[in-house]
């Protein structure tokens, strides 16, 4: 790490942060960044020293609950396969890479052998080079395609930013190869006048699944020469393709394979993933082909100091008088401010767009009090920005103009941000895979780095900062996706039929659920069978039926009422909760109030304002059982999994003071209800079980409600989901089960696989839930254990002790678990 050349007066502000240096067994590598002052010869502080500075002072030292030291690792070199073109090896050496790491050479060998392969190694382990070298070599091999165009390759990234970043890298690496490699980004931001050139001449096209689905596959005749010569399909950051999004992408890839076969091509798939459980299995489900796994990371790694940080309790009270911790947003903004003042290049990862904006605003204000020029060196980065705004921020990051950035996961996914010294993670990101992906953004040049997880006032975050073994002693999660989900498969069958009439030979490609779905699509007059094929019958574009990211309609445009200026967009599915009338909306450091939400025209009109609060939507939910797929006895109770219908309505919003989270008031809303058919896990208890747990009718509703909230908060530890991907309902007497019942459901049409994972890990999941509630130090329940930030009932009723007794009694009947608890079950 290095102090940057800071403005006059700022070094004086560092004095109070100085502490006695801490000796570490592994010294930091010397920093060679160009933004370091040539006259600054002070030694770079180690990550431990930087952490000590952040924690200096009596009020901060107790906030670190655990510090994990990940030791450095030496690298293992190999040689490139002899079939790689000499020109490509020379280009790689020209870029300063003399020899590949062992895993890079193995990936290249599999690719050259025509085997689909997934490389699942750590951040900054050179995954990009592993697949680029065989791809570039193949592109150089000449004009073997019938049209003389030569081989082509397709690159898929989950975000536009990553595709643009990779295009820059390919151009730099392939520059010595001349015009033999012609990379180009093809996405929604690509000018119309460039698109025809890309279709005809580009041989390495970088895009995203959305553009492949909506732009390339429906127009496949115009892409015929490209598809005919397609030899490799690169799928970067493939661990992000999970849940409903991953299921949609799986079907898009099957449509791509079908069209390639039509043109006589059978491309090899090259996938890159953060470290994941069973990467070859997940990659095989995603692509539908057999995939070989390379997961032995041979790259070197610097020391990583990883701290778990719990914000302190405040004197303020939340709902029902519960104690309130300082928000992770405010705490992270303070830490980002301190790191920026020290000249430590940092990124703060935030779970929400609004949180990213808020952290940058707070940090800028506090930096301006130290030195006004420093405020300009911190910014926010999130989805929803206009293309030119994203590009400007990316350039500022690469140049070092920005010292600190508050970013959503849009920056997590592989965008090359060199020279970062520290990463702040504002709230557990939902999976251990994402946690390590974000932490790995620092120290990317092999130097030591600091990562700090700042806990939210949330059951899972609180559990993790006090149970570090759940993070550091456990493998990352399996990727959950379900390509056979009928809500996913049906629109892709229609899209495939519109591209080329579907034949019976195609059905094996799309999966066994086709046989049941095709008659339903015929009955709905979406497909028509003629002789041996199914045809698309409508004039509309069939591809528009499938919403890959589950956003539920076209994005809502956020427009400044006074000027008509488009500020950005919000996903349709999030509009009711984020841009309702009266909502606070943050954009590029400016605060706006939503004056009107027009759902018919998908427009939210906003006006600039500076309210001293944020807003949080409240909703109500009811649920009915449509079909029970599986149920097993848990003592006298039952554990079930099946299909449900959920009706949800946003009914009000709370105003919370910015720094403390104190509730200032509630305002009613009049928004239409929305209905969702999805998958759920649910459990019931009997009167005898309630008696054994000492649960009387007065506290039953609160005990069930508290158990529901906490179990939703804990599920991301067992399934690759975020608590906002799932929902729950608890009812003292449900009309379908005729018993007290707790439901946890997937928040996506047709399900996303999360509830199914909950069903199969229920004993461990619910035991961890019980432990988390019981271990919380509060008396009657708080946001750290049983209160939920999205509860539609204002967290009322809740009964903490009743929930613990109820779960203890339920777990006594868990099959094969031998009692209420399972040793190690919490992790």
UniProtKB/TrEMBL annotation:
Residues in Helicase ATP-binding domain copies: 108-294
Domain of life: Bacteria
InterPro entries found in the cross-reference section: DEAD/DEAH_box_helicase_dom, Helicase_ATP-bd, Helicase_C-like, Helicase_put_actinobac, HRQ1_WHD, MZB, P-loop_NTPase
Residue span(s) of domain Helicase C-terminal: 331-487
Signal peptide boundaries: none
UniProt keyword list: ATP-binding, Helicase, Hydrolase, Nucleotide-binding
Region (Disordered): 28-77
GO molecular function per UniProt: helicase activity
Family matches, as SMART domains: DEXDc, HELICc
PROSITE patterns associated with the record: HELICASE_ATP_BIND_1, HELICASE_CTER
Protein name: DEAD/DEAH box helicase
Source organism (scientific name): Streptomyces heilongjiangensis
């Amino acid at each position: 790490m290095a102090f940057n050349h800071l403005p006059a007066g700022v070094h004086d502000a560092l004095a109070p942060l100085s502490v006695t240096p801490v000796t570490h067994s592994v010294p930091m590598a010397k920093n060679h960044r160009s933004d370091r002052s040539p006259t600054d010869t002070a030694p770079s502080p180690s990550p431990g020293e930087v952490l000590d500075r952040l924690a200096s002072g009596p009020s901060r030292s107790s906030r670190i609950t655990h510090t994990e030291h990940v030791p450095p690792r030496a690298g293992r070199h190999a040689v490139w396969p002899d079939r790689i073109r000499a020109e490509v090896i020379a280009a790689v050496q020209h870029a300063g890479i003399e020899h590949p790491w062992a895993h890079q050479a193995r990936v290249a060998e599999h690719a050259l052998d025509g085997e689909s392969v997934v490389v699942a190694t750590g951040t900054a382990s050179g995954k990009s080079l592993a697949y680029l070298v065989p791809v570039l070599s193949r592109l150089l091999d000449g004009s073997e395609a019938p049209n003389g165009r030569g081989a082509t390759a397709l690159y898929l990234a989950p975000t536009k930013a990553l595709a643009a970043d990779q295009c820059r890298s390919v151009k730099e690496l392939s520059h010595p190869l001349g015009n033999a490699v012609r990379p180009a980004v093809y996405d929604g931001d690509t000018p119309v006048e460039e698109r025809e050139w890309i279709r005809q001449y580009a041989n390495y096209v970088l895009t995203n699944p959305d553009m492949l689905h909506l732009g390339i596959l429906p127009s496949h005749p115009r892409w015929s020469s490209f598809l005919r010569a397609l030899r490799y399909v690169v799928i970067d950051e493939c661990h992000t393709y999970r849940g409903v999004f991953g299921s949609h992408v799986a079907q898009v890839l099957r449509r791509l394979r079908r069209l390639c076969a039509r043109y006589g091509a059978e491309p090899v798939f090259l996938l890159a993933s953060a470290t994941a459980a069973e990467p070859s299995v997940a990659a095989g489900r995603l692509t539908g082909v057999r995939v070989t796994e390379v997961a032995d990371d041979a790259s070197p790694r610097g020391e990583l100091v990883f701290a778990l940080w719990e914000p302190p309790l405040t004197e303020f009270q939340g709902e029902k008088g519960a104690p309130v911790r300082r928000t992770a947003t405010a705490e992270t903004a303070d830490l980002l401010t301190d790191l920026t003042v020290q000249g430590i290049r940092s990124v703060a990862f935030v779970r929400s767009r609004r949180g990213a904006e808020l952290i940058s605003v707070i940090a800028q204000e506090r930096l301006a009090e130290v030195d006004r020029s420093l405020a300009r060196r911190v910014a926010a980065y999130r989805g929803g920005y206009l293309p030119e705004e994203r590009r400007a921020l990316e350039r500022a990051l690469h140049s070092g103009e920005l010292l600190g950035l508050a970013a959503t996961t849009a920056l997590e996914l592989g965008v090359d941000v060199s020279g970062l010294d520290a990463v702040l993670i504002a709230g557990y990101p939902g999976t251990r895979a994402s946690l390590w992906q974000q932490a790995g953004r620092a120290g990317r040049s092999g130097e030591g780095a600091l990562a700090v997880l700042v806990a939210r006032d949330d059951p899972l975050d609180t559990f993790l900062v006090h149970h570090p073994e759940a993070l550091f002693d456990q493998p990352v999660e399996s990727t959950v996706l379900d390509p056979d989900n009928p809500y996913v498969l049906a629109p892709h069958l229609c899209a495939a039929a519109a591209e080329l009439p579907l034949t019976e030979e195609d059905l094996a490609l799309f999966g066994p659920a086709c046989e049941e779905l095709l008659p339903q699509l015929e009955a709905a007059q979406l497909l028509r069978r003629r002789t041996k094929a199914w045809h698309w019958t409508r004039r509309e574009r069939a591809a528009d039926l499938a919403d890959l990211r589950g956003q539920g309609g076209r994005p809502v445009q956020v427009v400044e009422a006074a000027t008509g200026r488009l500020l950005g967009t919000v996903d349709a599915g999030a509009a009711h909760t984020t841009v309702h009338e009266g909502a606070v909306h943050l954009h590029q450091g400016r605060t706006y109030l939503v004056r009107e939400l027009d759902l018919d025209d998908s427009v939210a009109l906003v006006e600039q304002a500076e309210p001293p609060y944020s807003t949080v939507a409240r909703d109500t939910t009811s649920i009915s059982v449509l079909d029970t797929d599986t149920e097993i006895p848990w003592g006298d109770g039952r554990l079930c999994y099946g299909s449900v219908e959920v009706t949800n309505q946003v009914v009000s919003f709370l105003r919370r003071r910015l720094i403390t989270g104190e509730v200032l008031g509630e305002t009613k809303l009049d928004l239409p209800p929305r209905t969702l058919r999805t998958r759920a896990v649910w459990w019931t208890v009997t009167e005898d079980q309630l008696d054994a747990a000492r649960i009387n009718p007065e506290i039953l509703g609160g005990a069930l409600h508290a158990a529901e909230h906490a179990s939703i908060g804990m599920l991301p530890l067992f399934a690759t989901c975020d608590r906002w991907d799932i929902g729950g309902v608890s009812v003292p007497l449900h009309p379908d089960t005729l018993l007290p019942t707790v439901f946890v459901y997937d928040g996506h049409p047709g399900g996303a696989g999360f509830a199914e994972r909950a069903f199969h890990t229920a004993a461990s999941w619910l035991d961890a839930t019980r432990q988390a509630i019981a271990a919380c130090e509060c008396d009657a329940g708080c946001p750290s254990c049983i209160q939920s930030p999205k509860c539609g009932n204002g967290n009322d009723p809740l009964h903490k002790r009743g929930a613990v007794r109820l779960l203890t009694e339920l777990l006594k009947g868990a099959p094969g678990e031998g009692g209420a608890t399972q040793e190690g079950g919490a992790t």
